[in-house]
């Protein structure tokens, strides 16, 4: 176990290199509960997210997850997050270390637009299943076909009177699904998928293997964009200059930034 932004996370369960191989060749399951899960709702929710996000969330459809940067007035990235849009509310998933800053940032905007922001991180958990064979393990045991969800799509519902949110996102470059569940179900869900699903069982994978696969896939992490604006960090694709977001003016003062270095 290692410390990460106040959380204890599993660096590895057995051999990290072997775990990376299993994840890349078959599938595995890992605990992503350190990622922040911030709920945004109310009449001003869309306006809040339009101001906070560099991507154009106004065009986002229900039941989808959109990757975006959240910047301060200076244009420097606070975090790169997924914004999940559901029918009645939104969820912003953050990196572990950036959660307090993102939460404060969203709450400051919420006061001006009449939105409600509440941190669901400690009330819920997140389990990620990833790998090329993940669909084969998930389809027979879930109430819907995971294989039918495309990347960026989201499925929400209730199971055993508890609400879940399943999203086709991830940072390893592999097919992956992240599922948010109430804490009361987390242990049972983890035990089922790692021990009791018969030949559908998947091995647990630690953070070292995940980080290796993320690097191999070329997916940027917090260390890659810390202290940078989205353009300098090579994330210009996440920026839509056609809407007014915090940090926009700083990014377009120098047109070379808007056009890319």
Structural features, described:
With 261 residues, this protein is of the alpha+beta class. The protein has two domains: 14-33 and 122-217, Probable tRNA modification gtpase trme, domain 1 (Gyrase A, domain 2, 2-Layer Sandwich); 37-120 and 228-259, Aminomethyltransferase beta-barrel domains (Alpha-Beta Plaits), CATH 3.30.70.1400. The protein has helices spanning 16-25, 45-52, 99-113, 134-138, 183-196, 207-217, 222-225, 248-252, 255-259, and strands at residues 2-4, 7-9, 28-31, 36-41, 64-71, 77-85, 90-94, 116-119, 124-130, 154-159, 162-167, 176-182. Strand 6 and strand 7 form a beta hairpin. Helix 1 crosses helix 6 (207-217) and helix 2 (45-52) crosses helix 3.
Outline:
With 261 residues, the chain is an alpha+beta fold. It folds into 2 domains: 14-33 and 122-217, Probable tRNA modification gtpase trme, domain 1 (Gyrase A, domain 2), CATH 3.30.1360; 37-120 and 228-259, Alpha-Beta Plaits (2-Layer Sandwich), CATH 3.30.70.
Query: Terminal Cα separation, in Å?
Result: 40 Å
Low-confidence stretches: none
Q: What is the H-and-E element order?
A: EEHEEHEEEHEEHEEEHHHHH
Cα-atom radius of gyration: 18 Å
Proportion in β-strands:
25-35%
The tally of strands reads 12
Task: Write the SSE topology.
Elements: E1 2-4, E2 7-9, H1 16-25, E3 28-31, E4 36-41, H2 45-52, E5 64-71, E6 77-85, E7 90-94, H3 99-113, E8 116-119, E9 124-130, H4 134-138, E10 154-159, E11 162-167, E12 176-182, H5 183-196, H6 207-217, H7 222-225, H8 248-252, H9 255-259
Antiparallel strand pairs: 1-2, 3-9, 4-7, 4-8, 5-6, 6-7, 9-12, 10-11, 11-12
């Amino acid at each position: 176990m290692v410390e990460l932004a106040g959380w204890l996370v599993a660096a590895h369960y057995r051999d990290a290199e072997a775990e990376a191989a299993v994840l890349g060749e078959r599938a595995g399951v890992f605990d992503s509960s350190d990622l922040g899960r911030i709920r945004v709702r109310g009449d001003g929710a869309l306006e809040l997210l339009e101001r906070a996000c560099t991507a154009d969330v106004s065009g986002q459809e229900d039941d989808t997850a959109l990757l975006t940067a959240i910047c301060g007035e200076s244009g420097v990235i606070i975090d790169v997050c997924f914004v999940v849009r559901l029918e009645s509310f939104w969820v912003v998933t953050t990196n572990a270390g950036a959660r307090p800053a993102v939460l404060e940032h969203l709450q400051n905007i919420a006061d001006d637009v009449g939105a409600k922001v509440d941190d669901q991180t400690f009330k819920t958990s997140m389990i990620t299943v990833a790998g090329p064979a993940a669909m084969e393990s998930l389809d027979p045991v879930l109430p819907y076909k995971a294989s039918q969800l495309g990347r960026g799509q989201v499925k929400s519902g209730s199971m055993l009177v508890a609400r879940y949110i399943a999203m086709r996102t991830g940072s390893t470059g592999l097919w992956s699904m992240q599922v948010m569940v109430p804490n009361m179900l987390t242990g049972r869900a983890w035990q089922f998928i790692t021990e009791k699903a018969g030949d559908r069982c998947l091995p647990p994978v630690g953070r070292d293997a995940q980080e290796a696969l993320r690097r191999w896939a070329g997916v940027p992490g917090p260390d890659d964009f810390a202290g940078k604006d989205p353009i300098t960090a090579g994330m210009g694709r996440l920026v839509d200059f056609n809407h007014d977001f915090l940090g926009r003016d700083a990014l377009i003062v120098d047109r070379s930034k808007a056009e890319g270095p």
